[in-house]
Amino acid sequence: MPTDRPKLHLPADQPTQASPEPEIATRDAATIRRDDFVTKVLANRNKVEPPYIPPPVPAAIATQTQLEMAEGAKRVALAAEAQKNRPVPKRDPSQGTSTPVYRPKDYVPNMKQGTKLNAKTL
């Protein structure tokens, strides 16, 4: 197969100009920037937040809360006293002691349904 391109010849006696120092310096600078970025991200991710301290309750609100709690205690005492004076409801024996089960026309479910034991039993 003929090709139109000439073959590439590298002269063996000419040394290649490969200076690793600028490449290493560039790579080191990039590595340093990346490491700085990673440390900043991790420091921000693992930041310790100071515990929340709620502001103090104003004196007017604390006083109002204490008054409401005292009024509530009085109401609870009145309700307990009223409960003592109420008659105990008597149980009606005609009501029975269990809840009846609703089964239309005394239907009892077939427990063997769907097992396909015998076509005559189904």
Helix percentage range: 40-55%
Largest sheet: none
Low-confidence parts: none
Oligomer: single chain
Number of helices: 2
Order of helical and strand elements: HH
Principal-axis shape: flat
Structure report:
This protein has 122 residues and is mainly alpha-helical. Helix content is 43%, strand content 0%.
Layout of strands and helices, then pairs:
Elements: H1 20-45, H2 59-85
How would you concisely characterize the structure shown here?
With 122 residues, the chain is mostly helical.
Task: Supply the key terms.
122 residues; mainly alpha; 2 helices
